[in-house]
Design goal:
By secondary structure, the protein is of the alpha+beta class. It has 1 helix and 4 strands. The chain has one helix spanning 34-40, and strands spanning 11-12, 19-20, 23-26, 29-32. Strands 1-2 form a two-stranded antiparallel ribbon.
């Protein structure tokens, strides 16, 4: 089981207006930051918006 790690990346979430580590909420969906993906260390192949490992195969909504 992976334990979420804290990050210094700070973005305000739409819904709460608070600063959250590693992600922000956009249109009710969680969007992980590139810093989070780099700390995780691998691509999950889900087509994440900010994936630094992307090979151009991003899935469109």
């Amino acid at each position: 089981m992976d334990i979420p790690r804290r990050n210094t990346t700070k973005r305000k979430t739409e819904e709460t207006g608070t600063l959250e580590p590693d992600f922000y909420v956009e249109h009710g969906k969680i969007v992980f930051t590139a810093a989070y993906h780099l700390k995780r260390g691998y691509c999950c192949k889900s087509g994440c918006r900010h994936c630094p490992y992307s090979t151009g195969n991003r899935k469109l909504p």
